[in-house]
Amino acid sequence: MSAPIPRSRWLAVAREIGWGRLALTALIVLVASALCVVAGRWQYGRYVAKADAIEAYEAAQTHSIAPVEEVAGAGGSLADDAQWRTVTVSGVIDADSVVALRNRPVDSTAAYQYLAWVDLEDGSAVLVNLGWAPVGAAEDTEDALAEVLTGADVTFSGTLRSFEEDDGRRDAGATRIVPAQMGDPGTDSIVPGYVVASEDCAGLCDDDGPLLEVPLPTLSLGPHLSYAWQWWAFALLVPVGAVLLTKRDLELKRDPSGSKPAPARPRRRRHPSDEEIEDAL
């Protein structure tokens, strides 16, 4: 077992490297390792969120289809087990409330998704994502919607989702699916969630309809867990790399050429000559 390095030698090496250099190296190691840990936690958080979403979706599929009023009554907040439920919506689409949701491409196609309030039979209102259309056809789509939405009763099914977080924007159109970016629903009784319409989007997504059905997001765990482990591994490797680089810099400081002395070659033993042997005898 090798003897520990005396403290005086550590101090001598530290002075040779320089206290300022050591302090700067320690600061860089701490900051870099902390950033790696934070990045790993962020990736792990995304993994947990997706795992929870998949679990909630699978649990929701075990429930039978029910009216949205029964699954998520107006007022309060959306229950955890109501997320991803398949519900039916029966009521009248408020044609004056239609708003284009911007910056939501569908299958890599620049698109507008169209939101509207639906007045339910019990007097409450629910926000519905009716469907989408290409951005280039926005004017024709809005004209077609104005003609189709005549105030007739509609019944369709869809998937219940929780409202998105409001980004505070209040200009033309909407950027988040949230009541604050919609017009007045005409009632204080609002379902605490929105419905992504399916089944031809209440007749708006059939062969002659102006809209296309909005696909649900793909639910997969993705690579976030492996990314988290990679970031945490980097957090451990940063101090190791700092030690190796500091050791290399110290070697260069002692020998600027950077070359290591070649090991001494052992001298070959010279055999005595015949004359030396005779003299020895």
What's the mean pLDDT score? 83
Largest β-sheet summary: 5 strands, mixed, barrel
Total DSSP helices:
6
Please give the radius of gyration in angstroms.
Answer: 35 Å
What does this structure look like?
The protein has two domains: 9-62 and 223-255; 67-197, Beta Barrel (OB fold (Dihydrolipoamide Acetyltransferase, E2P)). The model has no long low-confidence stretch (mean pLDDT 83). It is built from six helices and seven strands. The chain is α+β, with helices and mostly antiparallel strands. The chain has helices at 7-17, 19-60, 68-71, 138-148, 224-254, 274-280, and strands at 66-67, 86-93, 99-101, 111-120, 125-134, 153-161, 190-197. Strands 2-4-5-7-6 form a five-stranded mixed barrel. It starts with 6 loop residues before the first helix and ends with a helix. Helices cover 38% and strands 18% of the residues.
Topology:
Elements: H1 7-17, H2 19-60, E1 66-67, H3 68-71, E2 86-93, E3 99-101, E4 111-120, E5 125-134, H4 138-148, E6 153-161, E7 190-197, H5 224-254, H6 274-280
Parallel strand pairs: 1-2, 5-7
Antiparallel strand pairs: 2-4, 2-6, 3-4, 4-5, 6-7
